[in-house]
Amino acid sequence: MGKLTEAEVQTAAGQQQAQLKEQGKPVAAEGKMSAVFPSYARYDLALVKGKGSWVWDDQGNKYLDFTCGLAVTSLGHAPEKVGAKLKEQIDTLWHVSNLFQIPGQQKVAQLLTGNSCADQAFFCNSGAEANEAAIKLARRYHQKVKGDDRYEVITFEQSFHGRTLATLTATGQQKVKEGFLPLPAGFKTVPLHDLPALEAAIGEHTAAIMLEMVLAEGGVLEVQAEFLDAVVALCKQHGLLLIVDEVQTGMGRTGKLFAHQHYGIEPDIFTLAKGVASGFPAGVMLGKGYLREAFSPGSHASTFGGTPLATAVMAATIETMLEDELPQRAAEMGLYLTGLLKEKLGDTPFVVDIRGKGLLIGIECKQPVSEIVLAGQKRGLLFVTAGPNVLRLLPNLYVSKEEIDQAVDILSDLIHTYATQANGEAGA
Ligand SMILES: *Cc1c(COP(=O)(O)O)cnc(C)c1O
């Protein structure tokens, strides 16, 4: 079949819409993906193929991907070593219940605990689910092991912890909570870096403090080391658990395998998801050995958590990261990328700040930047935002200097053009 003309596409879409209307079914305004709940603001791009740093759309256009499924495909698209293990496991065993021994879980748990301060792992399927497990473990530890009436979790403004009812309540952004009342009890949110507010929020029911090392969705904001030290001290003083959400910052992204390792701290619990399985759905909650008995048999579960298929992909992903020293590579390439951005954009008044850790990078601008993202797509470069005024760059950890050069050329072009336009409008 040949390509449809624009008019034919319009007619086909129109006919489909009329048909849906006739059947009494909902009709989406855009006519695309009308059978899917419109809970995402989607770009008008359908990506159908990927390899390494590059993706292709359904029209055959090629893009340099500095998005990586939002920090998910950290080994690049369709990584061969991981793909080979996935194919091997597909022909062996996909799924068994957690009623049985799953050797893959022990292997992944040992890879993760052997390279961190944690001793135990719980497997699930997403970041929200990993954080949910962390919150449950913290409550259960206090209530069942220590015999405390502690259940409250303190989190920070601008944080992001997920979209389940508990994790959206933990999230420090009003927009994710609208229309979902009543929210579960047991959460408090205080401003980041406000020590008096944090101290005032701690009470007899406080069980844990949860935070990201770099607030990624919140604008690529790094937690100040002195503040983090104070948080650790408060946890010690009041017997609280420290939960670090490493869903976006974990798995090498920031230049260490786990971001908290930059600061020499040891969280009681930390959570992983995005980069842990190269795009296969997987989440992990990791904790210290003294928390072990809090999750006694029957206390928590997940049908799809840590299946033979998922653990094969996780193991291959983690082994590849360690073998190829990707955290170190992320640190080096991150310095190269931010250095280049500062060189090309540092003097532009439109750019407020260029910051980041490893290959989690934010460019804060004076005005909303969503149009720059769209203009980037037209130039063949994919990146996203982190809040209204911050551009976020998340290349894969194998990204080359040539690819970085290419991306920075396009970006600085886009930003200079946009800044000139914005200036013109402001002056007019
Ligand atoms: C993406 C993200 C989550 C939620 O992960 P899902 O897999 O979408 O549930 C939680 N915390 C942080 C820091 C994230 O970036």
Give a verbal description of the structure.
There is one protein chain. This protein has two domains: about 20-75 and about 325-425, Aspartate Aminotransferase, domain 1, CATH 3.90.1150.10; about 95-325, Aspartate Aminotransferase, domain 2, CATH 3.40.640.10. It is about 40% helix and about 15% strand. The protein has helices spanning about 5-20, 70, 80-90, 105-115, 125-145, 165-170, 195-200, 225-240, 310-325, 325-345, 370-380, 400-425, and strands at about 45-50, 55, 60-65, 120-125, 150-155, 185-190, 205-210, 215, 220, 240-245, 270, 285, 350-355, 360-365, 380, 385, 390-395. The strands form four sheets. The protein has a seven-stranded mixed beta sheet with strand order 4-12-11-10-7-5-6, sandwiched between helices. A four-stranded mixed beta sheet has the order 1-2-3-15. A hairpin with a 4-residue loop joins strand 16 and strand 17 (about 390-395). It is globular and about 65 Å long. The N and C termini lie far apart (about 50 Å). Residues about 10-15 have low confidence and may be disordered. The chain binds pyridoxal-5'-phosphate. Pyridoxal-5'-phosphate binds near residues 128, 160, 161 and 212. The site of pyridoxal-5'-phosphate has 15 residues, from helix 5. Homodimer. This is Acetylornithine aminotransferase. Pathway: Amino-acid biosynthesis; L-arginine biosynthesis; N(2)-acetyl-L-ornithine from L-glutamate: step 4/4.
Task: List the main descriptive attributes of the protein structure presented here.
single chain; 428 residues; alpha/beta; Aspartate Aminotransferase, domain 1; Aspartate Aminotransferase, domain 2; 2 domains; 7-stranded mixed beta sheet; 4-stranded mixed beta sheet; 12 helices; 17 strands; globular
